[in-house]
Design goal:
single chain, about 0% strand
């Protein structure tokens, strides 16, 4: 029995939602990062992070994102180790290299699949 066939309708719906969120984040969040990096006079990586603090609104959003990213990373590591999620390091690294809004939903798909396997193997 494959992992996908072990998923309940709710599990499948959750995985689909997580995948849609990851694709949307890849297009919107990471797409803007690439557009910024390709623009002239952007200041490079230093300029990218400095742009997150140009006023109180961007500072609030940047700090909010950083705290949520840290919480998501802690959860990914704790849950990933507990459930034995493969390639856990890749989800964590992708959170820093690509975007946490991409890697976290992908991790949640992997987590949901692991939970389904554990649930189906229970007596």
């Amino acid at each position: 029995m494959t992992t996908i066939s072990r998923l309940s309708k709710t599990d499948k719906l959750l995985c689909c939602i997580y995948l849609v969120l990851a694709v949307a984040a890849l297009i919107f969040a990471f797409g803007n990062t690439i557009a910024y990096m390709l623009s002239e006079g952007n200041g490079g990586l230093t300029g990218f992070f400095a742009a997150g603090y140009v006023n109180y609104a961007t500072s609030s959003l940047t700090n909010d994102l950083l705290v949520v990213a840290l919480a998501a990373t802690v959860l990914m590591i704790a849950e990933g180790r507990r459930l034995g999620v493969r390639y856990l390091w890749a989800y964590v690294a992708a959170g820093f290299v690509i975007a946490i809004s991409v890697s976290f939903p992908l991790f949640l798909v992997a987590r949901q699949l692991k939970l389904a396997v554990h649930k189906s193997s229970e007596p």
